[in-house]
Amino acid sequence: MKEEFKVISQLVEEKSRVLDVGCGDGILMEYLSKNKVVDVRGLEISKEKVKKCLSNGLAVVEGNAEHDLKQFPNLSFDYVILSQTLQAFMSPEKVIKDLLRVGKKVIVTIPNFGHWKVRVDLLFKGEMPITKNLPYEWYNTPNLHMCTIQDFYNFCNNKGINIFKTISLNGQKTSKITSSNLKFKNLISELGIFLLEK
Amino acid sequence: MGNFGKMNSITIKQPLKLDCGKEISNFPLAYETYGNLNEKKDNAILVFHALTGDQFASGINPVTNKDGWWNYAVGPGKAFDTDKFFVICANVIGGCMGSYGPGTIDPSTNKPIGTNFPVITINDMVNAQYNLLDHFKIEKLFAVAGGSMGGMQVLQFVSNFPNKAKVALPIACTASHSAQNIAFNELGRQAIMSDINWKDGLYDGQTNNPDKGLAVARMAAHITYLSKKGLQEKFGRNLQERSDLKFGFDADFQIESYLRYQGSVFVDRFDANSYLYITRAMDYFDLTKQYGGNLSKAFKESKTKFFIISFTSDWLYPTTENKDVVIALNAIGADVGFVEIKTDKGHDSFLLDVPDFLSTIKNYLNTTYLK
User: Fold this and answer.
1) How far is CA A22 from CA A66, A103, B248, in A?
2) CATH class of this structure's domain B182-278
3) Could you tell me which of A103, A106, A131, B43 has the fewest CB atoms within 10 Å of its CB?
4) Is B148 a catalytic site residue?
């Protein structure tokens, strides 16, 4: 399982209610229900992936987070998880608002566009960067709104969203991100993991 | 209608109060089973049939000598795997395959009850079938499942008996019959009632039945079960055993011939009055209204795990209507899964060989049974 999922599951308290938005194959859902005994639901846009989840008996609903989050009542989940999907939405701000409405706590992970490899690619090659977490060409990428860890950090501060915890993930290595090391972590992290509350 | 002698049935002795206000008792409910009930009695699946179905879900239907209506889905190694599960399917009341219906002979007149049969609802159908749990001494079903009207019965069953099924699979259905659904059913009923042989529903069931009206009803309904694309691909403008148009009203086109055939074989196995009663039950179905306009309330007491399925090309019970049930369930934090299966086969997809659909159900049931 991805290191990212291990970090996410450490943030989730046992026996809580979790919604995994963009749950994909349901690997994180499966892990959470086994290891954290959580009551977990999923929302996924790809029919193929939804069928895979349902085949494994997971409670996954086919749908698009930009339209289908509205069916979930306010604060109906202890945690809502959004893993590496925010950048693909038409209006990420609206989705974040909805996630914070549905979940008491929200875990968002961001593929970091501020990573040094990305910066080097753009600076020296003059081409849109292609990395492990961002493997697409500019013309076929589903990622409409790329941001850096620092961008998202600033976004939360500007919008009055409480950041409980920010974790940097670089390969297998995790570390805490604070306001004092933000600029440095923004350079060396492949992924930023945020635990938020309204 | 064939010989009911070989059929399994129970006699429901205690009175059943119907939604119309009348009470029925001592009436037959015909059923069929597939597979074996295990010792723990936790592997039973109650399958509900659609408008023109019957208890013969799998194998060969002994009355029609054709495959059971859900033969693609029910059987050894199939989606509802009868090597593992005990599948029960009953003929709904109002039906014509051995259960109490308008075709049942009234002993006082020796004639079919006809339109003296009380108007029944989906709720009445489900309440009658609940007696099968007592009959087999099943405390809790593993699953309830069905498509179309069968799906409506699934929804009604869970709302009536919130904790009598671990899993519910409503497929290609709705919680509330739409104006369009009612309109098509009314078209069918009018076709039957305008047949001179219908005689206000008091035909004798032997000769001179309202077959023409029933066949037209079936033809009209059959169109609603298919998609435009599916029809176009299968038939297009192909001509029926001729190389040119005949400038007459014979079946020039294959689609005409196909519909006529569907109509003609249908009247051999189905009673016109049953068609009136069952379509009426569907039209009256409005679970949302039953719960004061809040569908979520129908499922509030239930711990049942839902798996809802719709089909992209189904315009009779479209995805949006299936999704309304999903939304109502999510509103109360119920355990619900939902997928829309991509297919050109229209509403009928649930009865057909749609591999994605069948394999997902199979895996879902097998995994969930072990969980």
Assistant:
1) 11, 15, 58
2) mainly alpha
3) A131
4) yes
